[in-house]
Amino acid sequence: MANAYADRYLGESEHLPLARAIYGEMRKYPIISPHGHVDASMILANQNFSDPVALLMAPDHYILRMLHSQGVKYDQLAKNSPEENWALLAQNWKLFRSTPSRIWFQEILATLFDVSEILAPENAAKIYSQINVKLQSAEFKPQALFKKFNIELLATTDATADSLDAHIELSKIDLGGRIIPTFRPDGVSDPERLDWKSNLADLGKRNGIEITSFANLLAALRKARAHFKDNGATATDHGVFSARTLKLEGSEVERLFAKALTGTATGSELDDFRAAILFEHALMAADDGLVMQIHPGSLRNYDAEVFAKFGPDKGFDIPVATTYTRELQPLLNAVGKHPNFKAVIFTLDESTYARELAPLAGAYPALRLGPPWWFHDSLNGLERWREAVTETAGYYNTVGFIDDTRAFASIPVRHDVARRFDSGYLAREVSRHRITENEAMELAGDLAYNLSKDFFNL
């Protein structure tokens, strides 16, 4: 039984000896996490997590949405005590069978809290108590956990007007690794956001520029990007509805900005504005070298009532169909071969892997494919992705694994599960005579560590 647990997710039994060897090589490497959403101020404050729910359940939108799908109300979760919510999760744990949420959660319990049992109503109180006791110890404060997780680098996600004070203070602390910001300009790039004008005002105030024109917006963005870069940032992050880009003359973009500012822009004009500013973000990336991450295709805050009452990131961001070839053509014609431009493309639409994304990344030196994202960052999702993109893009036009999580405790288990999957996949490729054992062992270090470190300039 112990061997079976040790070999979890390594693939078919006939490939296990080699998969174990590849995994042994992968696990030597520390974690590079260039795209995530953990709050830097939480790590700086270094306070013990209040309870198991605050650590493991509340920040995980996968868990929240699954419970809601079976009738659990967000109002109920908000009113319950942590113990009541834990009991509710245990009562509904069967919902998560064969899901990645189940894998990550049980991996955390086993590897971090020495809990080998499957969560159930009859053991929920005991497991809660066992976790809670550990959470109150010094070894389970965020900074101690950061070291325990063997994280070499963790990137956060930060708004354009962020002072980065938390990052500046964290840079003075010996964490055994680095925490760096990532520039996220979504708040000032989409005029349909309710907070767009206030975000413009904050960005302008932070940089001493009154944003009354598109030119001034670009000037403020350039100053903000420089501030981020000065404090360790190597990338930007763009959560857009569409990957569409558009090259426009300055006067035309100014007209669109003015109409957006006065609230008179039509729907198509707002679409053009979003496409034009994404294009401008790419030009700025070619200037300053910050790696551009683009992840389109989510209709965010889909449920109006949940968003109004409880805010974003509660499980109601729903994927839509997306395309990339025509949408990215203006951007790639402008900077796709620029020596200073790098971009990582993610998708929620798996139909585009082989049809569009792999061919684009397989041709343009500036492009890399991000791994399966969001609903597809799972064992099955990783397999579908590898099978769809490898023949066209290879391994070296990807960037390794990205955890994309705000659930701090899930970072090491997500990377470990991905490394286990890749070990099994590479072992199978050897058995199919597509790569040699020596090549598989070299790929182990590249997929686990080198691809992300190199492409994100870390």
Automatic annotation (TrEMBL):
Pathway it works in: Carbohydrate metabolism; pentose and glucuronate interconversion
GO MF annotation list: glucuronate isomerase activity
Uppermost EC category: isomerase
InterPro entries for the chain: Metal_Hydrolase, Uronate_isomerase
Pfam families in UniProt: UxaC
Keyword Isomerase attached: yes
EC number assigned by the record: 5.3.1.12
Catalytic activity: D-glucuronate = D-fructuronate
Alphabetical UniProt keywords: Isomerase
An individual GO BP term: D-glucuronate catabolic process
Family: Belongs to the metallo-dependent hydrolases superfamily. Uronate isomerase family.
NCBIfam families referenced in this protein's UniProt entry, alphabetically: PRK02925.1 (NF002794)
Protein name per Swiss-Prot or TrEMBL: Uronate isomerase
